[in-house]
Each structure stands twice: as structure tokens, then as C-alpha cells.
Design brief:
By secondary structure, this protein is mainly beta. The chain has helices at about 5-15, 70-80, and strands spanning about 20-25, 30-35, 40-45, 55, 85, 90-95, 110, 115-120, 125-130, 135-140, 145-150, 155-160. The protein has 2 domains: about 5-55, no CATH class; about 80-160, OB fold (Dihydrolipoamide Acetyltransferase, E2P) (Beta Barrel). The protein is built from 2 helices and 12 strands.
Length: about 160
């Protein structure tokens, strides 16, 4: 990652309204914290990591710990056969094109490649998120009108 890419990332985070973004790649770790008056960026060269991860502090309060599933191991085994649709951008997740319209998809909806599954608003632009696979919506993982982060799971799809 070169300096121009880092500068563009800092500008994007500052405009998005996120308070903190952490980006970990194979050989670099970046933390960007924004406040009312300053933006702080920390860049650390690290040993190679197995996967790229990005996490940001949620804008909305996190769910209570007791909301976690009782048997997480069993849930993860069931979800292994499903494909996860993830957010390609930071923004606000909407399940319908406008407040007076129906949701793009519901649990049980059959979708095809190219079907719009949701809209994510980022910096006053509404970005239609299209499915890259065909299948059946098994679960909606995000509440309507809630903030989402880059690479955050949005839907589970059964491709069979």
C-alpha cells in the first residue's frame, strides 16, 4: 500500500463519519481515528498474517452479550454450507428502495445473479448491492437503516 492509497483512505474515513477504522493486511496494519478536530493515523509494519481483516468501532451501540447464540458451534456448522453476501463499502444499510416500497428481498426469496438485494448509502449516494450468486435468502444479518462496515456480512444465501 503506497502513501497515496493511505491518504485516500484517511479522507474516505474522515468523510464517512466513522470514529475509528482498523485495517490489517498481510504486511501492514493501519489504524485511523477521527475526532471533532483531528485525525490520527498509526501505521505499523507487521509480520505476514494469514488473512486480511478490517474492523471499525460501531456507530450504533453493540448488541448485548446475552444475545449471542446458546450453541455457537452448532450455528457455525449450519452456516458453513451458506454463502455470505458482504458489504463492499461503509455506509447505511437499507432493505428497500424507499420508505414506501417493499423490501428488495425477504427470507425465503429466490434470487439470481444481478438481482438487487439491498442499498447502502455512503456520502449521500445510494449504492445498489447486487447478488453475485443465485440461490435462496436464508437469513438477513443486518437491521434496516443501520450502519454497516466494509466486509460486514449482510445476508446468508443457500446456493443449492
Amino acid at each position: 500500500m503506497d502513501i497515496k492509497e493511505i491518504q485516500n483512505l484517511i479522507k474516505f474515513v474522515a468523510k464517512s463519519g466513522a470514529s475509528e477504522v482498523k485495517l490489517e493486511m498481510e504486511d501492514i496494519k493501519i489504524t485511523i481515528k477521527t475526532g471533532s478536530e483531528k485525525t490520527e493515523t498509526t501505521i505499523v509494519q507487521a509480520a505476514p498474517m494469514a488473512t486480511m481483516q478490517q474492523m471499525a468501532a460501531p456507530v450504533a451501540p453493540a448488541a448485548a452479550p446475552e444475545a449471542a447464540p446458546v450453541a455457537p458451534a452448532a450455528a457455525s456448522n449450519d452456516e458453513d454450507k451458506y454463502i455470505t453476501v458482504k458489504s463492499p463499502i461503509i455506509g447505511t444499510f437499507y432493505r428497500k428502495p424507499s420508505p414506501d416500497k417493499a423490501n428488495f428481498v425477504e427470507v425465503g426469496s429466490e434470487i439470481n445473479v444481478g438481482d438487487t438485494v439491498c442499498v447502502i448509502e455512503a456520502m449521500k449516494l445510494f449504492n445498489e448491492i447486487e447478488s453475485e450468486i443465485s440461490g435462496k435468502i436464508v437469513k438477513v444479518l443486518v437491521d434496516d437503516s443501520s450502519p454497516v462496515e466494509f466486509d460486514q456480512p449482510l445476508f446468508l444465501i443457500d446456493p443449492s
